[in-house]
Design brief:
two-stranded antiparallel ribbon, single chain, 14 strands, about 10% strand, 4 domains
Length: about 600
């Protein structure tokens, strides 16, 4: 990237070689990471800010002021968060909230630097200068924390990337195992001296804070092992009531939801407070069931890493991509039993050990042990892909929605008229009685086009009416003054003059473009459908219910459940119906039209 020709790097995109040597910043992402619109610009602007410019201590080989790397906030993609019950409980709601700005982070708030998690932007020159010869080859699996410690990471929580989340507990556990191995391979950087790429022993340049971050990761990985040991000792041997030890062991899972529930009960109704914290309690229960497997994984990862790091010096870079893990794992019950057999074994041991050493605690040990024995089944059930079954609406709900749709269509039917050049006014104000606002925007115009297509779907208008209305509105759009093809944000509906101050809203332009695509697809579908379909009768029924409340709609004898209506019988029936019905109220006159 800096223009060196003696590397194994090859360019995939044509033309990239033209900018080699001119690249200043690199944005690094995972394969399943999404970069929302304008996020790259925000990352570049944040790192390029003069107050954030990296100040390098060349003697130590680290950034001591400013930042060489910016880590954005990482959210979970909405599709990823709804793959299974497991992801619904553990991945949060998913999606991006553009109206949420900064969130708090202890390291950034207290010490002015965050933790790099592998997705962000870094200064290429600083990265190359500090890390080219700093790290031995073939011994670092999780390089993110180490790179962030050398380059000094700034956490920008008002910039958000969307990441994937493991779709099953099995994939989640495999990722945890790899992360623990990677964390423990950073053990040498807790000492005073480390080896560089050339094998020389040099002074460890990492700050005390960076060493604490590494140590904190090691501590966190050992927590499940400590929890499991405390449960065994508390139920089978330690003095005092077993519930005390059990509560201490499981407190990390339930402290936050308990505090949230108490806080919620003070300001919310009990039912609402439980709904707010119910997911966290379910998460705690699942973590309790998965605890022996988590401890087993952590112990295996730690022991495996220490052996490879201190004895064999092999397989230190053993790694499989998240996508490959998802593809290779079989999420069937036998697969979960095979992977979690250690948890089943520990559940049986807990019950047997407690029955032998402290029979009075057997009830608690049995409840917990049975949950551990059945943890593979829980992992399997919560990891099954969610099937989205559409819930049919009740007939009364359908009629209510159709009546609301008919009332909504009446707004466009009445006001997108010749007086307004077949454009929709922005609003009609009743109180105070200001009446119509004779202005419209690209979004309003898009709403009108969508309303016309929806009216055809509901049967409020015919296909001929749809074409006629679309032609008139599109003809008006052609007359509007534009800037480089973009409509201005506001126009007077009577004069078609753009309203000052003149400006372009890219949001409105995007809305209109999206609505035009939808309407174009709708028109293409209508070409394949009958001109006189049964939906016209449903639309007439909706108007009839508003025009003549309480009266039954007189269905014609020729009305089937699908297909086209016979044109001549339909015209005769409709004419006879209009002759029998009064036309006194506005809705009755709409029915006659």
């Amino acid at each position: 990237l800096l223009g060196a020709g003696d590397t194994s790097y090859t360019t995939v995109s044509p033309g990239l070689e033209k900018i080699q040597g001119k690249i200043r910043y690199v944005i690094t992402l995972d394969a399943d990471t999404r970069l929302p619109l304008d996020t790259a610009k925000k990352l570049i602007g944040t790192l390029a800010h003069p107050l954030h410019r990296a100040v390098v201590d060349r003697k130590r080989g680290v950034v001591v002021k400013g930042y060489g790397l910016i880590q954005p906030r990482i959210g979970i993609g909405i599709e990823s968060a709804h793959q299974s019950l497991f992801t619904r409980l553990f991945a949060g709601s998913g999606g991006i909230d553009p109206y949420t700005t900064a969130v708090s982070d202890v390291y950034q708030d207290l010490f002015g630097e965050g933790i790099f998690t592998g997705k962000g932007i870094y200064d290429l020159q600083v990265f190359h200068e500090l890390l080219t010869d700093a790290i031995p080859e073939g011994c670092v699996l999780s390089h993110d924390l180490l790179e962030g410690s050398y380059l000094r990471t700034g956490l920008a929580t008002d910039i958000e990337l969307l990441d994937g989340y493991p779709g099953s507990y099995a994939a989640f556990a495999a990722r945890q195992h790899r992360w623990v191995r990677g964390d423990w391979q950073l053990l040498p950087w807790l000492g005073r001296r480390v080896r560089d790429r050339q094998g020389r022993v040099v002074a460890n340049p990492l700050s005390s804070l960076s060493k604490w971050k590494i140590f904190d990761n090691l501590r966190r990985s050992a927590v499940p092992i400590g929890q499991l040991a405390l449960i065994f000792l508390g139920l089978a041997w330690l003095p005092g009531h077993p519930l005390v030890w059990l509560g201490l062991a499981l407190l990390p899972y339930f402290l936050s939801p308990l505090a949230g529930l108490v806080r919620g009960l003070m300001v919310l109704r009990p039912g609402q407070a439980w709904r707010e914290e119910g997911k966290a309690f379910l998460q705690g229960l699942l973590l309790t069931a998965f605890l022996p497997h988590q401890a087993w994984l952590a112990l295996d990862a730690i022991a495996r890493t220490l052996y490879r790091l201190l004895v064999s010096r092999r397989h230190l870079l053993e790694w499989v991509t998240a996508a490959e893990v998802e593809r290779s794992l079989k999420n069937d019950l036998p697969g979960f039993v095979r992977r979690m057999q250690g948890a089943v074994f520990l559940g049986v041991i807990l019950i047997a050990l407690t029955a032998w050493m402290r029979p009075g605690s057997l009830a608690w040990a049995s409840a917990l042990g049975i949950a551990w024995v059945f943890s593979p089944w829980l992992g399997y059930q919560t990891s099954r892909p969610l099937k989205r079954r559409p819930e049919p609406l009740e007939e009364e709900d359908v009629r209510l929605i159709r009546r609301l749709a008919r009332r909504t269509w009446a707004y466009y039917e009445d006001f997108a008229n010749e007086e307004n050049n077949y454009l929709p006014p922005d609003n009609y104000q009743l109180d105070p009685p200001n009446g119509l606002a004779y202005r419209t925007s690209p979004t309003n115009i898009g709403f009108l086009l969508m309303a016309v297509a929806a009216a055809r779907d509901f049967g409020f208008i015919t296909t001929s009416d749809l074409i006629h209305r679309l032609r008139r509105t599109l003809a008006t759009i052609e007359k509007l003054e534009t800037w480089r093809g973009h409509l201005f944000n506001w126009y007077h509906t009577k004069t078609l003059e753009p309203l000052r101050p003149l400006f372009i809203s890219t949001v409105d332009s995007g809305n209109l473009a999206g609505y035009l695509l939808v309407v174009a697809r709708a028109v293409a579908e209508y070409r394949q459908q009958p001109l006189w379909g049964r939906e016209l009768l449903l639309g007439l029924r909706d108007t009839h219910q508003l025009a003549f409340p309480g009266e039954d709609f007189p269905w014609p004898d020729f009305a089937g459940k699908a297909g086209s209506l016979p044109p001549e019988p339909f015209r005769q029936w409709l004419q006879g119906l209009k002759e029998r019905m009064p036309a006194e109220t506005p809705w009755q006159r709409k029915f006659h039209r």
